[in-house]
Write a structure and sequence with these properties.
151 residues; alpha/beta; Rossmann fold; 3-stranded parallel β-sheet; two-stranded parallel sheet; 41% helix; 17% strand
Amino acid sequence: MKVDLLPTEYVAEGLLAALGNRDVQGKAFLIPRAKVARDLVPRVLEERGARVEVVEAYQTVVPEISPDELARLLTPQLDAITFTSSSTATNLAKLLGENRIAETLCGAVIASIGPITSQTLRKLGVEVTVEAQESTMAGLVHALQDHFLKN
């Protein structure tokens, strides 16, 4: 597929900034995305007169895992843990039990894919050590490499 528009920031605000003042009145947009996602882009496009169809392409769910298996995965203490979306943070918090995520991850490098995920982690009481400059997997890996090379 040929890409016609690529934002410089891979968040909703970046896509809207890339669209700029383009006339979207009467244009049709298909937005395949997660079942749980912010409604910023569809809302703004509709406010600007576009026709928007949002399709739930996937959903994230809390995995079924026993407390023993979860404890095994978290032992020995982690050196680093990556969060690739807000749902990965909230799902881990649900698995660990209310208010235990910060305590459980204490001492580990916490790496976030971007500002929205970092915001969610902070709301959960988790201090973000590393945030990707570019909200992609490559950006996250690069941020972790930089962190560990410096430390």
